[in-house]
Design goal:
single chain, 257 residues, alpha/beta, Rossmann fold, 2 domains, 6 helices, 11 strands, 28% helix, 35% strand, globular
Length: 257
């Protein structure tokens, strides 16, 4: 099973690197931060799709992640950028440091925390950690999905998130299966099924039960206030469009009090 886990993590990291486009987020952040060279922290940086370009723009950037397979891509980016610092760590357990100008909780991180913690407590912990890591008046960037209704997550069936072949000729699929939801608690419960067919090993699959808390803007606003932030800007997307209930994405810039 250990070998299977390595194959799965390597396959997932490769597909994520190939298929996920972070350029709209990078463009939005870079536009807000233009004109200054800042110290930036990105917890859960993955392969460095956001922190890498920000370091290329001249900022002093630190990123960390707990996934060794994802970090291989981040470290490859950092090898050509002396101002990009990459480490392996669990964002809920490690000390994030202090005196950063900017902390990024980006790419819908709030809805994709991989943890055994109670989910709302994990979300609150990230905001507390961000506040401690920032200088007074430092900026927090936060974006997350906050759909008005969770009913679509409860529809029966399957949704393929990733499908493809990695550089080791392993073909795989990552499938979300049969979710249930509660609009009152804003909790979603579902399964992830991974199906892999390695080139030189037997096919295998595994199913993992997961849960998420899809925060409303009001709930997140209250947690930001309690953590010591004021909201300076609110958008409905990375292009700066106004937020309304028709948008699923909430994009926030917050100032540490």
């Amino acid at each position: 099973m250990i070998v299977s886990n390595y194959l799965l993590e390597d396959w997932y990291a490769f597909l994520y690197e190939q298929q996920e486009d972070a350029s709209p987020i990078v463009t939005h952040i870079a536009r807000r931060l233009s004109g200054e060279k800042l110290s930036i922290l990105e917890p859960a940086c993955g392969g460095g799709k956001i922190c890498g370009p920000l370091a290329e723009a001249g900022h002093e950037v630190t990123g960390f992640d707990c996934n060794a397979s994802m970090l291989r891509y981040a470290r490859k980016r950092a090898s050509a950028l002396p101002n990009l610092h990459i480490d392996q760590a669990d964002m809920l357990c490690r000390d994030w440091g202090e005196d950063y100008d900017v902390v990024l909780l980006a790419s819908n991180l709030m809805n994709n925390i991989d943890t055994d913690w109670e989910y709302k407590q994990a979300q609150k912990k990230l905001l507390t950690q961000a506040q401690r890591a920032l200088k007074p008046d430092g900026l927090l960037f936060l974006d997350f999905d906050c759909p008005s209704s969770l009913r679509p997550f409860a529809e029966p069936g399957e949704w393929v998130c990733f499908e493809g072949r990695d550089d080791q000729e392993t073909f795989g699929r990552y499938v979300v299966v049969n979710g249930t939801s509660n609009d009152h608690s804003r909790m979603v419960y579902y399964s992830r099924r991974y199906e892999l067919r390695p080139k030189d090993a037997a096919p295998f699959s595994c199913t993992v039960r997961k849960e998420k808390h899809f925060a409303t803007l009001e709930w997140m606003g209250a947690q930001l206030y309690r953590a010591g932030f004021t909201v300076e800007a609110l958008y409905g997307g990375y292009g700066g469009e106004p937020f309304d209930q028709g948008h699923r994405r909430c994009v926030l810039w917050c100032r540490r009090c």
